[in-house]
Amino acid sequence: MRIDNPGPPVTPPGSNQSGAPTENVGKNHFKNQLENETEPRVPGVIRHLQEGHFKGVADVRLRINFQDQLQGIASASQSAAIEAAGPTVVSAVEEAVGSLLESAELTDEQKTEVQTLFGTFTENVRQIPLDNSEEVLQQFNSVFGEFSTALRELLGLGIESVIPEETTESGDTSVEELVTAIESAFGEAISTLQQAISDAASILRHLSPPNGNGAAYQRFVDILQGLNEEAPVESGDTAPDTNSIDENI
Length: 249
Fold this sequence. Notes:
By secondary structure, this protein is mainly α. It has one domain (27-31, 42-227). Helices cover 57% and strands 0% of the residues.
């Protein structure tokens, strides 16, 4: 990746143009995109459904009847998770980049280029729309992949991330190790974000087992399964053939 016209040098991570410390570069982006969203009002029947008050056929039918509302609640919950955990991805990369900039192996020119690349990375993060959890993760990976590739090319390192077995002769951490640490920091942070989004989608308990009319129960289970076939999860242990039901919607 070449940056033909990167513009003026970007200030180091954690500072503004005057050199003063700044807030986490991603925090305001996530907050500003979501701060105007109001928490949806949850009807009493849905609240009771979330609390597990309905059993058997009633449980399944209500999940079908309130499909759209449940999806909306899950989406809002995921957006809140992105707002809370998303900035930590950028801050994790920022901290690791700061360690790289402290390396005595980098020239002043290289440090300036690293700062420019990091500035491009944070600007690209700001352009990521936050209304689709799957796209958020994909775009995070894409944006960081471009940054990582450009960083390795700048420093004359191989594209493949390999942790060296030895440090430099002086005992300091090598540039290769520092770059690998940046990649590892991103990987751990994005995994945490992914788990947070997944947990936020779990707005309902496991589907309850049938209570009485098993044939009617199974008929509604089939309908629910068709509505949620893209997100299979476990259901109640005694429910017949419902292991692919999405418990969340």
